[in-house]
Amino acid sequence: MKDNTSPGNEFGTGTLDNALYDMYAYYLQITLQNYAVQGINIYAISLQDSPTSTNFDTPAMSMSAVNQSNLVRALGPRLQSVGLLTKILVWEDNWGTPSFPIQVMSDQVAYRYIAGSSYHCRAADPSTQTQVHNAFPNKEIWFTACSGYLNSATWSEHLQWNTQYLYTGAIKNWARTIFHWNLILDPNGNPHKGGCYGCRGIATVNTTSDSIRYNEEYYGIAMLSKYIRYPAYRLDCTTSLPSSSMSNCVFSLCIHNGDNTTLVLIGNFCNSTATQPFILQ
């Protein structure tokens, strides 16, 4: 259905053929319906993973903001007409281009069918989610993809990054979810088809010894999942320390759970063994 039809050029290049928006919307509709027949009701769907990607080795389709608006205009009424409650999420790409989801949701027709926008952890930082929230406070923010990497960073460095940018940062910037991918890969980051070379799974399986190693992301998600109880709501909280030089090494998150308990997560990554008081507000 893409406009690039030459052999060997089917992956990262090309966009949806202008004449086929309704056909593609119908394809997505019947896909969701067929899952529902099997008892699998899809909660939400994004229109295209990484729509601004032009990697030649990745199964993908580039989409502009106008392309996504047009697809929502075709898909939204179809889902509504057959009684499907699946939410439509736009963007599904990195933090670096908040103007893209803002432009899509500025289309007054498409706006009616859009539940929100979704984000990956590449480029910029999670504060851009708040830019989109401020533009459209009634639309949801979802964080849907971030991978660990096979690099020289230590366990502590990986955990600090995840805590700063995901477990506190993304959620404090209106994200309703945190997703890591891939679930399981081998020590070389395989299997994969193009795209992320060096991405690491939440768990790593050694195919020689048949052993499994649980990585930093596994423990981070396990910790949050243990103490956050649906339905849960974020409480606005900040930490302050007596030393301004330590302001960037302590991170906090406060959650009020559906069972009336409250979670306070403090990430302390200060390079000091001394006891340091801090204020949580």
Description:
Helices cover 30% and strands 21% of the residues. The chain has a 4-stranded parallel beta sheet with strand order 1-2-3-4. Strands 6-8-9 form a 3-stranded mixed beta sheet. Strands 10-12-13 form a 3-stranded antiparallel beta sheet, covered by helices on one side. It has helices at residues 21-37, 65-81, 99-105, 108-111, 127-135, 155-172, 216-227, and strands at 44-46, 87-93, 114-120, 140-145, 148-149, 184-185, 199-200, 203-206, 211-214, 233-235, 239-240, 250-256, 262-268, 279-280. The protein contains 7 helices and 14 strands. The protein is α/β, with parallel strands linked by helices and 281 residues long.
Concise overview:
By secondary structure, the chain is α/β, with parallel strands linked by helices.
SSE order: HEHEHHEHEEHEEEEHEEEEE
The Cα radius of gyration reads 21 Å
Taken as a percent bin, the fraction of beta residues is: 15-25%
Give the oligomer, counting copies of the same chain as homo and different chains as hetero: single chain
List keywords for this structure.
four-stranded parallel β-sheet, globular
Q: Secondary-structure map with pairings?
A:
Layout: H1 21-37, E1 44-46, H2 65-81, E2 87-93, H3 99-105, H4 108-111, E3 114-120, H5 127-135, E4 140-145, E5 148-149, H6 155-172, E6 184-185, E7 199-200, E8 203-206, E9 211-214, H7 216-227, E10 233-235, E11 239-240, E12 250-256, E13 262-268, E14 279-280
Parallel strand pairs: 1-2, 2-3, 3-4, 6-8
Antiparallel strand pairs: 5-7, 8-9, 10-12, 11-14, 12-13
Helix pairs in contact: 1-2, 2-3, 6-7
